[in-house]
Design a protein that fits this description.
The structure is a homodimer. Chain A is an alpha/beta fold. Chain A is built from twelve helices and eleven strands. The first copy, chain A, has helices at 19-31, 43-46, 52-57, 75-81, 86-95, 108-119, 154-172, 193-202, 230-255, 259-279, 305-321, 323-339, and strands at 5-10, 35-41, 60-64, 101-104, 129-134, 141-144, 178-183, 208-214, 225-227, 287-290, 295-298. The longest helix of chain A is centred in the last third of the chain and has 26 residues, at 230-255. The relative contact order of chain A is 0.16.
């Protein structure tokens, strides 16, 4: 059995909060005997949802967070002015070193701001980056940055490669992750000014840089880590969702086009369900903010209980895998190398 | 019957040239009684491929182009130093006003260089842009720029919107095309510096700007024209291809997973074929280079005869639709407005 760890959970963030969040925590606790969850939320709304045995079991601890962050608050203001909000309190539990990780399905902007201003960057990291695991036909891969830095310098991209490499190693279990730069051609001289400069830098990094990857080859999973600026990465991530939905809907139209096709679809139903499940990236949990001094996981805003449970699982794997420690070590090494 | 027009075709460009190009021309001539094709290529390689009736019919004219552009030539050098190449001769036929359009499946870079240096920009257009038509579940839409300008200024994007709007109107037959800006969020303040500035400009253009579109909503066809810089546009285009291929391959795995699924797949075969055909954007022809002073179509490099025939059809629709004339008119109006 592993050593027991504490996870801090923001009960108030997300479209289905707090109901799906509480239910997700209950599922996670049943699956993982060696975790304790500190659940931060508005007492009057969350307490009635808690199962009786949770209180008794002692592994789900409800903590009152009276401040409410709403959609009209700017992320930075909310983080500064609402210290007793569920998000900030959960972040502070990580900052204090008590919680090994925190999970929130709330606004990405607030989590980014909170990560920077409450938890802080790892020394040497220029910009933290969101990473997401996407299923491909050859296997899952990491895409980073998928939305936190929309205007990037080449140096940021080079660091995203390192953080993504550590993450793929520790969480996906890939021994020497192939890190590729998302580009419009395979050749070194291709791309816009940003990626051309990033390409140069990435060739001199300690990770396994395999060069450019074209968008055509991204979905299959031809690389273990795909590096992009936050604008391009977010486009790829959301385009993946959109393409999957559009193709499923076009396929359904064809399935209903004739009696013959309908029968065929009926027979294929289990296969189609398995296919849909494979395509569902909520299976892979949430998106960590890499480069901050703690494990911070952004769960999908529309997370149901199952997706939120997956995000908690992700947080546990990251904490136990020592992702933050490995990134810190890389930064220290970089600093020493430059010091010589 | 329409007035007869001449199309200039580069017989030497593309992975399957000249065989598939000649075959594509023959298919196009059979379909369209009111076109004449000037076919530019190396006499010794192309002439043996011509059908006997083509010579007799007089609508397929072979013109010898002795210079050969190969992969080692830089696009700009090739265009300057090989005036008797099939590409340059076809471009010159457009420039001279004899041909109403030209089609090539050769290198994109060479076509872009040729478009700029041999045919020239429409007065007032800052940067010509490649446009492509992509099938969506709600209908086809135009994506522009899909690869010619990897580093853009906001002004370029605003013009891409206008050119895309004209193209959607004249070629897809949409009466008041909804032009949207590819972005990472729907709100006006979202995005990187480039798209934030472009958003401002696009609101003051004469076309129907509907705001930002998230990548999630692009594949369905929620807008008629999607505007992006050439880097992002190329990522979206190639990611569309890659997602379609990956999803089909994952679906096939499920289809072969059990006897039941295999039977289902067999029954659904016609439907799956129709689905694949819908997803096949070669159906929609090639990608025009909008903003140059003539109809220039880049056919897919891997075009077979059918895809090349579609690209010729595209060229005919663009020429007859008066796309170049409409863009020219817009530029004149812009100039007059600024003159006031």
């Amino acid at each position: 059995m592993n050593q027991q760890i504490i996870l801090a959970v923001d009960a108030m963030g997300g479209d289905n909060a707090p109901g799906a969040i509480v239910a997700g925590c209950v599922l996670a606790l049943a699956e993982q005997p060696d975790i304790v969850i500190e659940l931060y939320g508005a007492m009057d709304r969350v307490k009635p949802l808690l199962p009786a045995e949770a209180e008794a079991g002692g592994r789900l601890l409800m903590v009152d967070a009276p401040d409410v962050i709403d959609n009209t608050d700017s992320p930075v203001m909310a983080i500064r002015q609402k210290p007793k909000s569920s998000l900030v309190m959960a972040l502070e539990a990580v900052k204090a070193g008590r919680a090994a990780a925190m999970v929130s399905a709330g606004s990405t902007g607030a989590l980014l701001a909170g990560g920077l201003f409450r938890v802080g960057r790892i020394r040497g990291i220029e910009r933290p980056a969101l990473a997401v695991i996407i299923p491909g036909s050859l296997g899952p891969f990491v895409l980073t940055d998928c939305g936190s830095n929309v205007d990037c310098k080449p140096e940021y991209l080079a660091q995203f490669g390192q953080m993504g490499s550590v993450y793929a190693q520790k969480v996906l279990g890939v021994s020497n992750p192939r890190v590729a730069l998302a580009n419009i051609g395979a050749e070194a001289e291709k791309g816009n000014n940003l990626v051309k400069a990033a390409f140069e830098l990435m060739g001199n990094q300690p990770y396994n840089f395999v060069g450019n990857i074209e968008a055509r080859d991204i979905p299959a999973g031809a690389a273990d880590v795909v590096v992009a600026d936050g604008f391009v990465g977010n486009m790829i991530l959301k385009h993946t969702e959109g393409m999957a939905a559009t193709l499923m809907s076009m396929l359904k139209q064809e399935m209903m086009a004739s009696a013959r096709a309908k029968l065929g679809a009926l027979l294929m139903k289990p296969g189609l369900r398995a296919f849909k499940k494979k395509m569902d990236y909520t299976e892979y949990g949430g998106a960590p903010l890499l480069g901050v001094n703690g494990v911070l996981i952004k769960a999908h805003g529309s997370s149901g209980d199952y997706a939120f449970k997956s995000a908690i699982g992700q947080a546990v794997r990251m904490a136990r895998g020592g992702v933050v420690e490995a990134i810190t070590e890389y930064c220290q090494q970089q600093e020493e190398n430059h010091g010589i």
